[in-house]
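User: Structure please.
Assistant: Input sequence and predicted structure:
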Amino acid sequence: DPAMPMTTTSMLAFLSAGLAGAVDPTITLNNGVKMPLVGAGTWQYNSTTAYQSVIDAISLGYTHIDTANDYKNQDGVGKALARYNRTDYFLTTKIPGCTTPLLPKSCYKETKKQMDEDLQLLNVDYVDLMLVHFPPTIPPGCGRGNCKGIQEQWRAVEELYKANKTRAIGVSNYCQSCFECLKETLTVVPAVNQVQYHVGMGTDPIGLFSYCKELGVVMQAYSPLGNGSPELIHGNLTTSIGEKYNKSSVQVALKWIVQGGYPVLTKSTNPQYLKDDITLFDFTLSDDDMKALNEATKPSGKPSFLCSS
């Protein structure tokens, strides 16, 4: 009966059937590991919601799942991923920035403990990408006083990599000052820097994107809609461009990021939105449209909430 409401399962089957053209290309990180360009995030989801969102995402063609120690949902993510072959998905998780940067040795110990906790909760032998989620928060940022703590935290992350418990390592919310500190002692250059990035921020906010490119660090975008900015979801620029390609304003905002060469994280508990968010590779924005999006100044945003240079 066509009037019958679709169950989630039948809706997913219906959506999956239309996904023949949806592929998720990869980007190669500085150590040769290939990372899918579009990832499904789980921020603000409890374990039950995260469990369902991961199953939905994978059924719709996503192969990259992103979680974090701070999200308190890794058990749900791990339970969902247990249904699949370990080599069929790319898993990113994170550990918090060190809470005691003025006591570098405790930064190292705390980080080792949290990384073990991540692997246990996810119930995996290794992750594909382990990120330091943000710089220290007390005192905030990457000032010289925090530098030894930042370096000790990174030393612990490097050890996880050298023990083959993660295929790549990186950072999130890091600015130039954080990298300048790391560069003094690192033996492995971060592969990724995951930051807020969306239309309205320009092509090189605070000079960070060009700086990271020089280092060989891939920039990855979180909050690609500026935390649900009306300007991007309903605004004239993204909407009018979308109409030319028969795409939504959201697809235009996401496409601008991946066409610029950057991986992106998206999230939704709605399977239709999840499907739309990965159907980005069957159209190309014109040079004029890319230019208009590059030059947009709204909504404004900062790559990191803890540092600005």
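Residues 1-6, 16-21 have pLDDT under 50 and may be disordered.
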